[in-house]
Amino acid sequence: MENVRKKLPITLSMGVVASSPKYSEIQIFKLVDEAVHKAKNRGKNQIVVVN
Asked: Could you tell me the mean pLDDT of each successive run of 10 residues in the chain, 51 residues long?
């Protein structure tokens, strides 16, 4: 069998939150989830930062 190399396209949408003691773990997860959805809605290879 011949060794065949294929390119594997990879994209990344990311949500980032600057953590703070004023936020509970649940609030941080909700903020991250919201940021990820915003990034996905903006298209491929997007990063949304919430602080």
From this structure: 79 91 92 95 94 79
